[in-house]
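ARCHIVE RECORD
Type: protein–small molecule complex
Small molecule: zinc ion
Source of inputs: curated submission
Record status: active
Notes field left blank by submitter.
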Amino acid sequence: MNKLARTASWTPHQADWIAAYQAYQANGGSPFAIDPHDFGPGVADLQYALYDSRSRSGELGRMRRKAGLKSCPVCGSPVTGDLDHYLARNTYPEFSIMRANLVPACRHCNSGAKGTTVHGGDPRRFIHPYFDPWAAQAIWFVEIVPPYKAATFKPRPVPGLPAPQGEIVEFHLENVLGTQFHLSMATYWSSLPGQLKIRDPELTIVSVTQQIDQELRVALHSGGTNCWQAALLRGIRDDVAAIDHLRQEAIAAVLPPMP
Ligand SMILES: [Zn+2]
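STRUCTURE (tokenized, with ligand):
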């Protein structure tokens, strides 16, 4: 910010801009506490464009390429490599290159689902990966909606989250998960009986439950606490009817011959 303010055209905006950054930090990016600031005619477009010229190089480029993320910090998909504006750049161009407002994310999160949505009415807003430390615990699961042979998948907050966290998670899930999530759930769900058949010679309710627990441990290790697979496996683990369905499908499954 201070480096930028040395450019003559930005110098007059430095004080207001720093005040906006401070308000962001003080309020954890909350869209209910931070109003977009009007910097004067034409300035918003220039602020908006700052990101386009900087997103692939320097500090922002390094954020984008951040290694070691197990899944998208916004939606939990297995894909990373993009940056998302927590407060949308259209509404809040003054935060277009503020690091605290830029969250590593997948392509889908950055390009589509959220769009220009900033919030859904207090307290419904997106989870902020930097300012909501409570969101590091398991915050959601996937409910398997019968009929199990043609199951559909409903993302839900885990029970027992204190207010307003439950509502925040619900709004977040409604707005970040799209078609790819539902396709991915259906694919994984239909592959589970075959996996169970390979790994579990008993195929009882108890042994299948143990296998699901084992799969969940693997998902937590490889994708992180709130990745898509972990959320689905949490939902299966607490649904005896779903486990029984998987067990029966596994018994009936015909495995491909070894090549
Ligand atoms: Zn994502």
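CURATOR ANNOTATION: The two ends are 60 Å apart (CA to CA).
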